[in-house]
Amino acid sequence: xxxxxxxxxxxxxxxxxxxxxxxxxxxxxxxxxxxxxxxxxxxxxxxxxxxxxxxxxxxxxxxxxxxxxxxxxxxxxxxxxxxxxxxxxxxxxxxxxxxxxxxxxxxxxxxxxxxxxxxxxxxxxxxxxxxxxxxxxxxxxxxxxxxxxxxxxxxxxxxxxxxxxxxxxxxxxxxxxxxxxxxxxxxxxxxxxxxxxxxxxxxxxxxxxxxxxxxxxxxxxxxxxxxxxxxxxxxxxxxxxxxxxxxxxxxxxxxxxxxxxxxxxxxxxxxxxxxxxxxxxxxxxxxxxxxxxxxxxxxxxxxxxxxxxxxxxxxxxxxxxxxxxxxxxxxxxxxxxxxxxxxxxxxxxxxxxxxxxxxxxxxxxxxxxxxxxxxxxxxxxxxxxxxxxxxxxxxxxxxxxxxxxxxxxxxxxxxxxxxxxxxxxxxxxxxxxxxxxxxxxxxxxxxxxxxxxxxxxxxxxxxxxxxxxxxxxxxxxxxxxxxxxxxxxxxxxxxxxxxxxxxxxxxxxxxxxxxxxxxxxxxxxxxxxxxxxxxxxxxxxxxxxxxxxxxxxxxxxxxxxxxxxxxxxxxxxxxxxxxxxxxxxxxxxxxxxxxxxxxxxxxxxxxxxxxxxxxxxxxxxxxxxxxxxxxxxxxxxxxxxxxxxxxxxxxxxxxxxxxxxxxxxxxxxxxxxxxxxxxxxxxxxxxxxxxxxxxxxxxxxxxxxxxxxxxxxxxxxxxxxxxxxxxxxxxxxxxxxxxxxxxxxxxxxxxxxxxxxxxxxxxxxxxxxxxxxxxxxxxxxxxxxxxxxxxxxxxxxxx
Length: 799
What we know:
By secondary structure, the protein is of the alpha+beta class.
């Protein structure tokens, strides 16, 4: 019998009083008399890290999430001691730490309380596994709202929700089902027009409670590891998201074709079927840039092999597809079939690269090939080996992209659908169990894949897509929202998921258009296409078990709608490319929920459907059948209906009539939207004009356009074109000012300017202070104006 009551006690433990402190550079250590240490690190004036240990010392400081290439620095740091607390002051915030119990509170410089501990840090001894269950609770303000946390199938505003973070293969998940495939333990709080962020960088299974259990308390906890979190001060949500994205990293610019339309199915085989699909796209004039091969292209589902019955000469096939504008993307899963005659298996076995159970044997699980072993991607040597496996696929056969699936990791025929928790991982020199490594396994696989594809695709840019991810995965890979379902509810879920991923640092995301499981009606597929073309990653994907899901599987009306909206996406490619450039350069999300766009307008705080695509296009999908219109909220400002050019004043909810071949799309007044001609694939056409849709505004507006060679790395040497447009609208005049940066000379020589919403009839045009005759600049009565691209200021004058 255990008689030691201290061992029997399994309740919560708390820090006691501070007995000493040390200030070392950007960090301050507070020591309590029960051996708790709080390390406060000032990374920026608005970015503070709080790290706790309960054992009197810190373990090795290691994170897969943090982008170590980012440089941080603060402008001002002052530590003062008061009677009952210590105060840390930066040029943006003040942090008070109570001497009695380490509870902390954070204020702006006007003493407005942004965030404060309720119970604060506490922990529970984990006698079953060792270590601690670490916990944090914060007081929540009246009316406070919460956003973020990545891949969640629930309302945009998380107030009143409890969520779990444990990467899970959730086939055909439903609304409110949790957890899902990705883990992004980062949320944004908003109250009293002030935003802040919390990033809980802990890879164990974590939980967040947003005032569900207790009305005015927000809490988060993990089943192991440290209480290690970053506080990010806004006060604008834009500032919070940008800082978080900087902290965890941004991707490199993808090749432009990746932003085109992609077609996928489980599975397209044999070669004749693949050619039939690609030929039909060209026949119907529906633009498409990529065709995907699912697991059936392999020999017995063995990764890095080809089924020669289905694909007798893959190099020839891939080359022929490329001649027709199609890039080939193939799937690669983590499970390596146990087969002594299989070269990948033999190499990994010889090098001892597979994950092991706690008592020594290799971890074994069933996936598509049957019994498999699984590489330990947390080992740098394994990642290097894995990267080298892509040489034949990419550099010899010519595959342009790789798709990582089943990497939660997913395992069949076991109750928890994943590895046993006793599996051991190298964890880059910090050995641990699968409890700690589970949530980052998929990211490390995608990381290794990225380095392999990048190595062998050079001098072209790589393309990788993953199903499972942890914070920071966006540095290596795009993603999609997993095995969704062909239902109207899932169309609603997809809309929110991609918005949420965008403000959670992982902007390059899309959903399986039409739904992966089950079969959509033509109407549902059409409505999903109309939404999907406004997602950064745009791909139709479906399960072969549920029928065909190509555009021509439906009627002529759906084919025409698909062509119309996919063609619109191809017209908007320069706009989309510019969005992506701003994402990687400035951390600006490509999709912006209305609350991100205008957090001061409380009407945006609970909106789910509407979002800003880029900076100047407002989109609201149709999310129910038989709709002839819908109510939607137009944010403050002036917006043009894209289809009718009618001008709306925002800050209100309105009814918008729509046809089956339309959804509500609006353009911000004053915007300049760049457009390419419709191409069947990126690079098909050479053209001499860039169309600029100019939407009149009585006032000023700025627009930008980024372009480069559309692939390769010359843009990093300054060979890019960055156009800054400024429109100044007056009662009888429109001024367009242009400033160009970069050494890239775009292949076109002219701008075709489409003047929309002019309140006057044009009587005079001046270019760089020189009056121009109409016949010399191709001015047309329908307000199209063709001018040489080398101008600085254009005056359009009327009466």
